[in-house]
Amino acid sequence: MIKHREQQHHFIPHSRPTLGKEEIKAVSEVIASGHIAEGAVVQEFEQKFADYLNVKQAVATNSGTSALHLALLALEVGPGDEVIIPSYVCCALLNAVNYTGATAVLADICPKSYNLDAADVKKRLSSHTKAIIVPHLFGMAADLDPLLALNVPIIEDCAQAVGAVYNQRPVGTFGVAAVYSFYATKVITTGEGGMVVCNVKNIAERIRDLKTYDQKGDYKIRFNYKMTDIQAALGIVQLERLDSILRSRKVIAEQYTRAFKALDLNLPPDDCGHIFFRYVIGLNTDSRSEIEALAHKSIGCGRPIYLPLHRQMKRKGYPVTEKAWKDSLSIPIYPSLTKDEVARVIDAFITTHRNF
């Protein structure tokens, strides 16, 4: 009985990293080497990441946000330019656009995938549009073909989509550049960190120049956006286990879908390229009460986007984004979830949902 009580009260967090002895060993070796700043291990991680995606260039950074900032600067985005981004996304995209002095133009999303709606983007194009940032949100590839047809440079935001596939190709290989995030609870992690990938050498060279400010023959504003060898060592091991990570996510997602399909819910699309970074459920009602009720059952859940950008910028409109924000609930899904924890999440969610 006591053991049962302890299990019931064990809190299951919404997110947590998947780490093991291999990561500890790799990081320890770098520390023991005495070279912990950016060096040969970062270069190895860049090459392995480029090889994984089959792209020509990969440049490691200290965060996904800095990767995006550098990608915009490499495309010469600046004051007077407009960059179209979704409202239903974290504020890192808005920050990166604002860093350049350009203007962010918000667009609405598709109700099923939560990704950018190409028809809405098209309405917001102007002679000042310099780029479109296209997130593959929650691990589901955006519908890129109609966006590419707009003939505007696209930066793919793959922060939540390492390993996701669109038209039998990895996301991150369609736009003029793509950015990745390796934050602690992303698909793979370096603690903090990011990457820009592309197939154009001079774009990568601009990014490499801009991410390091010291020992330059000329002066211009540059940044300290480098990754460390400690982070890269972690990233190399994480990349090696990526296929296993993705399989685990898929298995858990299938369990959730089977358990919830009889309920009146909008479940994630069962797309073969979806990696289920998040398992996002549309409740058709405000999700706040169910999130609070699940917290009382020691299950960490949340709105998958803290606050859409149009609300932060105090703008009206964006009806699909507004509904997605109010109705959506994200439940735990990550490889270190045990079978018992998955069962607890399922039982708690079904019980809670039926009480509303």
Explain how this protein is built.
This protein is α/β, with parallel strands linked by helices and 356 residues long. It has 2 domains: 2-11 and 242-354, Aspartate Aminotransferase, domain 1 (Alpha-Beta Complex); 21-240, Aspartate Aminotransferase, domain 2, CATH 3.40.640. It has 14 helices and 11 strands. The strands form 3 sheets. It has a 7-stranded mixed beta sheet. Strands 6-7 form a two-stranded antiparallel sheet. It has a two-stranded antiparallel ribbon with strand order 10-11. Strand 2 (82-86), helix 5 (92-100) and strand 3 form a beta-alpha-beta unit. Helix 2 runs antiparallel to helix 9 (229-240), helix 3 runs parallel beside helix 9 and helix 4 (64-74) crosses helix 8. The protein is globular and about 65 Å long. The two termini are 29 Å apart.
Topology at a glance:
Blueprint: H1 2-9, H2 21-33, H3 40-53, E1 57-61, H4 64-74, E2 82-86, H5 92-100, E3 103-107, H6 118-123, E4 129-135, H7 144-148, E5 154-157, E6 165-166, E7 169-170, E8 177-181, E9 194-198, H8 201-210, H9 229-240, H10 242-260, E10 279-282, H11 288-296, H12 309-312, H13 319-327, E11 328-331, H14 339-354
Parallel strand pairs: 2-3, 2-4, 4-5, 5-8
Antiparallel strand pairs: 1-9, 6-7, 8-9, 10-11
Which structural traits does this protein have?
13% strand, Aspartate Aminotransferase, domain 2, disordered N terminus, 14 helices, two-stranded antiparallel ribbon, seven-stranded mixed sheet, 356 residues, 2 domains, Aspartate Aminotransferase, domain 1, alpha/beta, globular, 11 strands
